[in-house]
Amino acid sequence: MVKNFCATSLAILLCVSPLASQAAQFPLWEAGAGVAVVNFPDYRGSDERQSYVLPFPYFIYRGDFLKVEDQRVRGQFFKNDNAEADISINGTVPVRSEDNRARNGMPDIDPTLEIGPSLNIFLHRSADKKYKLDLRLPLRAVIASDFSNVHHEGWVFQPNLNVDIRDVLGYPGWKFGFVAGPMFSSRRYNEYIYGVAPAYATADRPAYTAHGGYGGSQIISTLSKRYPNFWVGGFVKFDTLNGATFADSPLVKTNHNFAAGFAVSWIFSRSGTIIEEDN
């Protein structure tokens, strides 16, 4: 995804739920603010990078249907001992083509909102609930906007294996996460990011029409810890476009990308309503 904070960068850092290994009591909501330092490519396949120091809001909500926690914003439809279905939300920030050599002279890439259903299958839970292995199957529609008009830009499907380990290596409160899986996207989405219309073709950038299908794969690793009034977290992400249907686009300058980030957030306020959750 293009400078993707919510799935693979800032969202990995933003929504870290309190760490526990059994049923415990938590506030219904918590709010605060933090700052993140991130470094990533302009888009998957770009050989140009950006570094940012970014303020962000910190918010956790533990409602019966809407949940903002555990690295996700979820509208939970159902949950049993084997699986759950929820709403998966993601997003990207814009790319200014004038700041990227490969895209110079082309239209900018607008920020996007990705939203759709996800089926999450619980493959394993340890007896002490400190180890979890899930298969997540999110399918999201992509909506792009420059804040003056809105346009649909296809869909993305990102099946992945998700591992969560609490109290890593015996250190209480530390949480390790690992996500790995392939990426698939529609022709419309790939054309939006990697297509080159004849009007924008140059001697070094021939016209190109993208196709839908396999879009490479990614691996994300996170480490975080929640303290009473603040939390810290970091991530690293590796992307490969080997075998992607759009890997031969002139906008793809490398088949491998690396991203990393670190964040700290302070919790300023919390709900007086206390709920019990099996975390």
Question: What can you tell me about this protein's structure?
Answer:
With 279 residues, the chain is mainly β. The chain has one domain (10-269): Lipocalin (Beta Barrel). It is 5% helix and 55% strand. It has helices spanning 10-14, 187-194; strands spanning 23-27, 29-41, 49-62, 66-69, 72-75, 78-79, 83-92, 112-125, 131-145, 150-157, 160-166, 174-185, 213-226, 230-240, 256-270, 274-278. Strands 2, 3, 4, 5, 6, 7, 8, 9, 10, 11, 12, 13, 14 and 15 form a 14-stranded antiparallel beta sheet that branches. A two-stranded antiparallel sheet has the order 1-16. Strand 3 (49-62) and strand 4 form a beta hairpin. The longest helix has 8 residues, at 187-194. The chain is globular. The protein starts with 9 loop residues before the first helix and ends with a strand. Mean pLDDT is 86; it is low at 1-9 and 11-23.
Give the helices and strands, then pairings.
Layout: H1 10-14, E1 23-27, E2 29-41, E3 49-62, E4 66-69, E5 72-75, E6 78-79, E7 83-92, E8 112-125, E9 131-145, E10 150-157, E11 160-166, E12 174-185, H2 187-194, E13 213-226, E14 230-240, E15 256-270, E16 274-278
Antiparallel strand pairs: 1-16, 2-3, 2-15, 3-4, 4-5, 6-7, 7-8, 8-9, 9-10, 9-11, 10-12, 11-12, 12-13, 13-14, 14-15
